[in-house]
UniProtKB/TrEMBL annotation:
Substrate binds at T128, D202, E227, K257, D261. One of its GO terms (biological process) is S-adenosylmethionine cycle. Its cofactor is NAD(+). It comes from the Eukaryota. This is Adenosylhomocysteinase like 2. Signal peptide: none annotated. It comes from Myripristis murdjan. Transmembrane segments: none annotated. Residues 262-423 form the S-adenosyl-L-homocysteine hydrolase NAD binding domain. NAD(+) binds at G293, E294, V295, G296, K297, G298, E314, N417. CDD domains: SAHH. Binds 1 NAD(+) per subunit. Keywords: NAD, One-carbon metabolism.
Length: 504
């Protein structure tokens, strides 16, 4: 109305005043929401600056180890954050079940038989909704389960509560200390009258603990199923030293783990983890990815698609050549450390990013790890008097140098995606099904089939896992004719590739 040449009518003035009042009211409400959220976050930091997540801030700060909790049936053989979150966790599990068709199919097929009847499985994995579906599937197949977490930040507290309410002995909560971590593993293993006969491990910590504290338990353990690069490396070391006293199944190097969980899962979850923690824009950012295995390949592909400038470091000339052929610049870390905006480790090694590199990074550089263990970034070297640590968000720390330079460290150098975000459920369905079949195979194998060594899952089982997931896509496999099968020298029902075949 300000630009009108004639005076505004009373009706127009009333309308203008109404609009102005509505806008003012909207501004007040909008600003009050922002202020309330800001105050809430600051209060979280005041109450518990090292709290594992904002959602935990409403809980008391009493350690779960000091609480006496029981589920609705009076069972207290668990240690979690808050049993009252069970209903919320149950809904999370139900959502995950929709994206895990193969495990649900295994349950349905096992209604008449229990291939894990008598199995006592002790597990140490990430405790998420997806793992819960696996645990409940193992139970449906006849197994008894006791479980701890393989990562101090990846446990979903509400899911742990739902499992405890369902009768599972779970010992895990988000934000455990190192002492809590080993205490939980010990509580899983050391129970009078309960002797595990199968191990499901992720990282090798559970296996290591039993070797260290309870070596006599291996007399009754039929086998180990391990799903991580780190854990498999430990198993091969034990085997080489002649100290592996039970058969072990290397799930990590099965096709269904390598090509799906490691590659496709990381291709999606790397972006999710970085966005949730830092709100970073990827376009134009310079990123160095250390390691071009399956995890590194997934990370590089995602970042390249978002417009980032991606560098790769590698020790293996074959993986290095693949990186070059995929359009990435192969460098040494010290050549680009001053200029990059993001550093991501994916090697499974130790001390990949040491203090020397951290000192030379630019202000604001984001540092994170996509490998299983927290050994790739030398975080211990940053805990010195001259550096200041500032918690910004859950799992996000600013490490500040005396001159004011700061880097952004995510999850204190632990696994980014499961510590700071979530991972695609469908991909985890593939890995979890592979784990379940590996347990069934080792548990039911006739004596003598597997020696005290590390084995890969038979390719036929890899193909079976893949086939269970195809109906989700309404996919239809082509069947060989008898003539074609004879020509290729194959069984019509598989396996379709020799063991030396590489699914690049």
């Amino acid at each position: 109305y300000a630009n009108k040449t004639t005076p505004a009518s009373n009706e127009e003035l009333k309308r203008a005043n109404a609009i102005r009042n509505s806008v003012s009211l909207f501004r007040i409400k909008y600003l009050s929401n922002i202020v309330s959220e800001w105050i809430g976050r600051r209060l979280c930091c005041v109450v518990s600056p090292w709290s594992a997540s904002y959602t935990d801030s409403s809980d008391d700060e009493t350690s779960p180890r000091d609480k006496q909790q029981k589920n609705s049936k009076g069972n207290g053989d668990f240690c979690i954050k808050n049993i009252k979150q069970a209903d919320f966790g149950r809904r999370e599990i139900e959502i995950a079940e929709q994206e895990m068709p193969a495990l649900m199919a295994l349950r349905k097929r096992a209604q008449g038989e229990k291939p894990l009847a008598g199995a006592k499985v002790v597990g140490c994995t990430h405790i998420t909704a997806q793992t819960a579906v696996l645990m409940e599937t193992l139970s449906a197949l006849g197994a008894q389960c006791r479980w701890a977490a393989c990562n101090i930040y990846s446990t979903q507290n509400e899911v742990a509560a739902a499992l405890a309410e369902g009768g599972f002995s779970v010992f895990a909560w988000k934000g455990e200390s190192e002492d809590d971590f080993w205490w939980c593993i010990d509580r899983c293993v050391n129970l009078e009258g309960w002797q595990p006969n199968m191990i499901l491990d992720d990282g090798g910590d559970l296996t290591h603990w039993i070797y260290k504290k309870y070596p006599n338990m291996f007399k009754k353990i039929k086998g180990i199923v391990e799903e991580s690069v780190t854990g498999v490396h430990r198993l091969y070391q034990l085997s080489k030293a002649g100290k592996l006293c039970v058969p072990a199944m290397n799930v990590n190097d099965s096709v269904t783990k390598q090509k799906f969980d490691n590659l496709y899962c990381c291709r999606e979850s790397i972006l999710d983890g970085l966005k949730r923690t830092t709100d970073v824009m990827f376009g134009g950012k310079q990123v160095v990815v250390c390691g071009y295995g399956e995890v590194g390949k997934g990370c590089c592909a995602a970042l390249k698609a978002m417009g980032s400038i991606v560098y790769v470091t590698e020790i293996d000339p074959i993986c290095a050549l693949q990186a070059c052929m995929d359009g990435f610049r192969l460098v040494k870390l010290n050549e680009v450390i001053r200029q990059v905006d993001i550093v991501i480790t994916c090697t499974g090694n130790k001390n990949v990013v040491v203090r020397e590199y951290l000192d030379r990074m630019k202000n604001g550089c984001i540092v994170c790890n996509m490998g299983h263990s927290n050994t790739e970034i030398d975080v211990a070297s940053l805990r010195t008097p001259e550096l200041t640590w500032e918690r910004v968000r859950s799992q996000v720390d600013h490490v500040i140098w005396p001159d004011g330079k700061r880097i952004v460290l995510l999850a204190e150098g632990r696994l980014l995606n499961l510590s700071c975000s979530t991972v695609p459920t469908f991909v985890l369905s593939i890995t979890a099904t592979t784990q379940a079949l590996a347990l069934i195979e080792l548990y039911n194998a006739p004596e003598g089939r597997y020696k005290q060594d590390v084995y890969l899952l038979p390719k036929k089982m890899d193909e079976y896992v893949a086939s269970l997931h195809l109906p989700t896509f309404d996919a239809h496999l082509t069947e060989l004719t008898d003539e074609q099968a004879k020509y290729l020298g194959l069984n019509k029902n598989g396996p379709f590739k020799p063991n030396y075949y590489r699914y690049y």
